[in-house]
Amino acid sequence: MDKIKVIGGKTLKGSVKISGAKNSAVALIPASILAESPVTIEGLPEISDVEILKKLLEEIGGVVHLEDQDITIDPSMMTSMPLPNGKVKKLRASYYLMGAMLGRFKKAVIGLPGGCHLGPRPIDQHIKGFEALGAKVTNEQGAIYLRADELKGARIYLDVVSVGATINIMLAAVRAKGKTVIENAAKEPEIIDVATLLTNMGAKIKGAGTDIIRIEGVDHLHGCRHTIIPDRIEAGTYMILASAMGRGVLVDNVIPYHLESLIAKLREMGVSVETSDDQVYISKAKKLVAADIKTLVYPGFPTDLQQPMTALLTNAEGTSVVTDTIYSARFKHIDELRRMNANIKVEGRSAIITGPVQLNGAKVKATDLRAGASLLIAGLMARGLTEITGVEHIDRGYSHVVEKLQGLGANVWRETLTEEEMEQVKNS
Ligand SMILES: CC(=O)N[C@H]1[C@@H](OP(=O)(O)OP(=O)(O)OC[C@H]2O[C@@H](n3ccc(=O)[nH]c3=O)[C@H](O)[C@@H]2O)O[C@H](CO)[C@@H](O)[C@@H]1O
Ligand SMILES: C=C(OP(=O)(O)O)C(=O)O
């Protein structure tokens, strides 16, 4: 186990290259199960979620070669081996093994997923979709059992707009007989990326990226080569920290269109944001002004940037209200920001931030992935030394984060925890 140490206050400049999107990667890799010949995905982020999915595919008989950012998966020898616990619980996206294995083998046993603890994260809409396609779904001792004699296309209305349910239903439906229509589908760019891979594998999908997706099932899917989209959340995180501490930071390999809600907010706060086709250039404002933020489904402000943004708002003049409409309890980072002198109250689903304050370095713990990003940004803004534990959460979603920050001139490094520190972290 590691900790990250930051000495704050240094101006950041230069450029940072964004990696492939975590939330695409974790769906594209399981999608390969549906093919009958090798699938290559290029440009993956080097994160632990990818490593774990690789091992899970190997457990079911996949031959997987992962080198740097490229993976080749030969799914031809895979079987419907049950995956009831263990690694499955280490990430959220293991739920995509349900849709992909159901699509290919018409049966699967997958443990309930893990991922960030952000309040309740049910998967009832995934299950509703699988059942509508003809699967019998039961929950036995924390594992979901799925079985179907045959999958048949269906019209499925999602009661909640869900990224995971939209993709998972798509994964099963591409191998169902006949036509599936997903209504009230999520529209995130990662959904289009997965639909693009599936289409290159021979699937027939229309409407990905809109709220109605139409799928015509096919009997066979083949391998292909696919390049992943850039990670809009990683890009947004660097844009936010550049807004706090940057004197000219170029965020490279980004699709600015995916980040319009963030760009608009940063400009509202006084940050200068210039965009080109695949780059964003940020110059810190002379004075940041407070802004209210409400997280919404895409193209609204992403919940995954709510926590990083909270750190930035501690430096803005006035009172900001940040409301998370997607997750009821995505505020565990606030207690840690308070240790660093932030003036924030949580009321229901909102955090009320009064600024500006000078943050001070402290020993803090990342309780989830974006809490970790928020604390890193706070550490870079703070006076003195910040020590962040819970780094394994950060490693789920940020490729080479320390090296990328060092490249911008940050005074940041990683250390291994001593046994005594490890004990303290476990007990805290
Ligand atoms: C691996 C991955 O891609 N993770 C992302 C995905 O998570 P995830 O796919 O888990 O998030 P969803 O879009 O499904 O969840 C959105 C909301 O719907 C609710 N819900 C969801 C499914 C369901 O069956 N029933 C239900 O009630 C959830 O509790 C939440 O309140 O989208 C989230 C929302 O953009 C992001 O924060 C996560 O980074
Ligand atoms: C919540 C997140 O991830 P996951 O759904 O994988 O837990 C995230 O990426 O911020």
TrEMBL record:
UniProt-annotated catalytic positions: 116
Pathway(s) where this gene product acts: Cell wall biogenesis; peptidoglycan biosynthesis
Coiled coil: none
List of residues that carry 2-(S-cysteinyl)pyruvic acid O-phosphothioketal: 116
Sequence positions that bind phosphoenolpyruvate: 22-23
Record keywords: Cell cycle, Cell division, Cell shape, Cell wall biogenesis/degradation, Cytoplasm, Peptidoglycan synthesis, Pyruvate, Transferase
EC number: 2.5.1.7
Domain of life: Bacteria
InterPro entries: Enolpyruvate_Tfrase_dom, Enolpyruvate_Tfrase_sf, MurA_subfamily, RNA3'P_cycl/enolpyr_Trfase_a/b, UDP_GlcNAc_COvinyl_MurA
Binding site for UDP-N-acetyl-alpha-D-glucosamine: 92, 121-125, 304, 326
Location of the protein in the cell: Cytoplasm
Name of this chain's protein: UDP-N-acetylglucosamine 1-carboxyvinyltransferase
Family: Belongs to the EPSP synthase family. MurA subfamily.
GO biological process, one term: cell division
Gene Ontology cellular-component annotations: cytoplasm
Record function comment: Cell wall formation. Adds enolpyruvyl to UDP-N-acetylglucosamine.
GO terms assigned for molecular function: UDP-N-acetylglucosamine 1-carboxyvinyltransferase activity
Record carries keyword Cell wall biogenesis/degradation: yes
Keyword Acetylation in annotation: no
Enzyme class (EC, first level): transferase
UniProt xrefs under Pfam families: EPSP_synthase
Organismal lineage: Bacteria, Bacillati, Bacillota, Bacilli, Bacillales
Principal subcellular localization: cytoplasm
